[in-house]
Amino acid sequence: MSAADIAKAVAGGKMSALAATEAALARIKQHDTILNSFTDVTADRARAKARAIDADIAAGKAVGPLAGVPFAVKNLFDVAGLSTRAGSKINRDLAPAKRDATLIERMEAAGAVLVGALNMGEYAYDFTGENVHDGPSRNPHDTTRMSGGSSGGSGSAVGGALVPIALGSDTNGSIRVPSSFCGIFGLKPTYGRLSRARSFPFVASFDHLGPFARSVTDLALAYDAMQGPDADDAACTTRGLEPTVPLLANPVSDLRIAIAGGYFQKNVFPEAVEAVSRVAKALGTTQIVDVPEAARARAAAYVISTTEGASLHLDRLRRRPNDFDPAVRDRLIAGAMVPAPLVDRAQKFRRWYRAQFSEIFKSVDVLLAPATPCTAPKLGQVNFNLDDVELPVRANIGIHTQPISFIGLPVVAVPVPLEPLPIGVQIIAAPWREDIALRVAHALERMGVVSAPSPRGL
User: Fold this and answer.
1) Which domains does the chain have, with CATH numbers?
2) How many helices and strands (H and E) does the chain possess?
3) Which of 89, 93, 254, 266 has the fewest beta carbons under 10 Å from its own?
4) Is 325 helix (H, G, I), strand (E, B) or coil?
5) CB 248 within 8 A of CB 445
6) Helix, strand, or coil (residue 266)
7) Between the CA of residue 258 and those of 27, 213, 368, 434, what are the distances in Å?
8) Which CA distances in Å does 134 have to 88, 265, 336?
9) C-alpha–C-alpha distance, residues 369 and 379, integer Å
10) What is the pTM of this model?
11) Do residues 160 and 173 make contact, with C-beta atoms less than 8 angstroms apart?
12) Which UniProt keywords are given for this protein, alphabetically ordered (predicted)?
């Protein structure tokens, strides 16, 4: 059942919140031994929350728009009573969190039921979904393949239909990559739109939190529930609530939609080309807009990511270098040695690049681009061939997402159900226009062009 269907059934007395919770816990128990998407299952907490919702309904009290809906969160979100491991070995020594992350509080205020914490790449520095401490989260359509990262457990859990909604983070593509590989919908909101309070950071100037779901309506329901200012996150907007659910069915014929050209049409496998082509054809667009200096934007994003990440982890690198994933440790050490003038240039370029997109969005409402260059690679795959060049998989899966995160634009990743594996397309909008990206995604879903396929690997 979708989140919307569960909430409707629970609010209408046709299903108890406890029954919905028990069904999710049963699915997790049955399938997560294969998917390895969960690191913690909060069964007692979930049952207590569900019983409280059922008691409110019995007493005639109003319940929220997500009443009884099970959800889970990437394990970099603080969950009261759990250590916030952020995919690492080192963080397991932290004291248990005393309070939930703001977004968990808001989801539960809307009636949702937290059922656990999810596997992820160490310290969110990953595109594969592989974790040396907890093992890889697996692709629900072919368990020999990657789930994507770093929110791999989130993608695997929703793609595998263990929960209808999960939360993750996206610094350079970590919501959009798992969405693409696992065949689900994901929303990276505008930078600062959703609070990051009480979540473990990676790159504070790029970090976004957002939802995954199996339908656009569920994605919008979760997003709307989490909106709002939060003084506990200095980067969080002071804008008021801007609900998107009431706008989903609005027509998209008035929108100016274009295909991102140049850089975004290179370094792609045939399946990525086909996915963008199907989406563009359904939307009736052939216009191509070149995005200037996107390759340089990706390079600048790398510089800022690795240096901010290195600064964050410098003490841990000095004290416990052998407790890191070696691949993560080595990139962070390299980041610590990047000369300051390069970082300064990257930040100056970032301002210029943001201004270029501001110009683009004066004549275009939506840009279409690949979410990943290919469908999910095999677990452990080291290299792939992009435009006749052998490149490392781990570093290049996010080749089309990084230039967008770099300036904090809102993006909905939509799954195109190709055979044998799905792949995602990015629907990119101007800052604060999540409503437009979601409208386009909803229109595509109604046309049957995008959808979350049933898990094939379970």
Assistant:
1) 3-255+399-447 (3.90.1300.10)
2) 14, 13
3) 254
4) coil
5) no
6) coil
7) 40, 25, 6, 17
8) 9, 36, 26
9) 25
10) 0.97
11) no
12) Hydrolase
Terminal Cα-to-Cα distance of the chain (whole angstroms): 17
> Are 272 and 374 contacting, i.e. CB atoms less than 8 angstroms apart?
yes
Residues with catalytic function: 74, 150, 174
Q: Is 20 helix (H, G, I), strand (E, B) or coil?
A: helix
Tens digit of pLDDT per residue, the chain (458 long)?
999 999 999 999 999 999 999 999 999 999 999 999 999 999 999 999 999 999 999 999 999 999 999 999 999 999 999 999 999 999 999 999 999 999 999 999 999 999 999 999 999 999 999 999 999 999 999 999 999 999 999 999 999 999 999 999 999 999 999 999 999 999 999 999 999 999 999 999 999 999 999 999 999 999 999 999 999 999 999 999 999 999 999 999 999 999 999 999 999 999 999 999 999 999 999 999 999 999 999 999 999 999 999 999 999 999 999 999 999 999 999 999 999 999 999 999 999 999 999 999 999 999 999 999 999 999 999 999 998 899 999 999 999 999 999 999 999 999 999 999 999 999 999 999 999 999 999 999 999 999 999 999 88
Contacts with 140 (C-beta within 8 Å, 6 or more apart), sequence order: 35, 147, 156, 159, 160, 161, 182, 183, 455, 456, 457, 458
Which stretches does DSSP call E strand in 279-417? Answer: 288-290, 366-370, 383-386, 389-392, 411-416
Rounded to whole angstroms, the Cα distance separating 199 from 78 reads 6
Chain position carrying tokens 């959800």: 71
**Helices in 320-454 by DSSP H: which ranges?**
326-336, 340-360, 393-396, 402-405, 434-447
Scanning the structure block, which residue is given the tokens 């049955």? 30
Task: Find where tokens 């690997």 sit.
Answer: 457
Instruction: State the number of CA atoms in the 13 A half-sphere of 346 facing the CB.
Output: 23
Structure tokens at 217: 């309506």
